[in-house]
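Tutorial handout. Part one gives the primary structure; part two gives the three-dimensional structure as tokens.
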Amino acid sequence: MTLALALWRAGGLAAAPLLPLWLARRAARGKEFPARLAERRGIASLPRPNGTLLWLHAASVGESLSALPLIEALRRARPALSVLVTTGTVTSAELLARRLGGAAAEPSRSGAMPDSPWLVHQVAPLDIPAWVERFLDHWRPDAAVFVESELWPATLAALRRRGIRAALVNARLSPRSAARWARARGAAAEALSTFEVLLAQTRADAERLSSLAGRQVDTPGNLKHASAPLPADAAELARLSALLGGRPAWVAASTHPGEEQQVLAAHRAALAAHPDLLLILAPRHPERGEAVAALVAEAGFPARRRSQRQDPDGPVWVADTLGELGLWYRLARGAFLGGSLIAHGGQNPLEPARLRLPVAFGPHTANFAEVVEELLAAGAAMRVADAEALAAWATRIAAEPGWAEASGRAAQAAAGRGSAALDRTLAALLPLLPEEGYTAG
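Part two.
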């Protein structure tokens, strides 16, 4: 055990008595499920399924979306497989329940997926050795898959001790994170040695991971390319399409604090040329709906909110609900991706591209650098430096539907190159699982 890991374990033991109070405070702010706080301490709320069980961890929304096609592909390849999914955020749990568990799933009450009995969800245990051991004692996974960038020292050490075969897929390691890990190179190498399969999202990620792991890291492609188009309720889409009656619209999706004011300024400028243009403003965190509506009102627009069942009959509609981005994208001619006008790193531009929308993003797109470059090279996207440039893009969306359609077709073609990444990732993971028919003891 490295000194860094020993210090981490000691810090976890010291912090453990205080963490229940911290979790209760998070629950009071809507950051945890109050009824499921015990899961954070590794106390299961459901029985272990019989047979082979794969543990798949996807920390937040982005990782969860990347995992969806992989979960479905694993199930097709191994029909008897059960999957335990853990996440670290309320939003990601709710998204998975809607996408995999059907309308009856209630993530706030349990991790059962009524429409998918082979799939269960738990909130990830915090990285406290005793809590991780309790979690593993109950679930006894036959293999573990971590998506993107979750490296929890105590959890990984427990997997190594128990000989549980593990993989890190679609791995992402930013230059900043790589520099931090480089200062504890021994701990990084020890953590990464847990993974029998180590697959990176991009070539740059693979190089950084290879440097820390001391071994070659493969790059099968980005699983985000493999996702299916975001779903939308067909009846609601028909209703809203009829309500808009061909009115041009654009989406500002997954916006963050500090961006909405710029988006609203851009929309005001675009309205000067196209008074009927609709802005669908969808904050990254729907619980910010009230605050975003206040910004809309400050900008002089009526603050209509989806969460309040108010339809879009003004120039701005605040789309403050979860899991409906697929609906907004189908109503629009183009999409701006938030997290990019501020130093956040950007959100996933493939989701609107997959639905044949031209996309725009600001200067900060490090989280999706290769995807962004592919879309720019395909003529499917535009980088905007500020509100003025965003206004020009939104104006063009309204004024030139033919250009928007052609750009959208290019976006859809660029986004549809993910089947190889999924196939290669699946091929690497299947050997980690016991043969079909295995029964856990």
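Part three, for discussion. The chain is about 45% helix and 15% strand. The CA atoms of residues 135 and 238 lie 45 Å apart.
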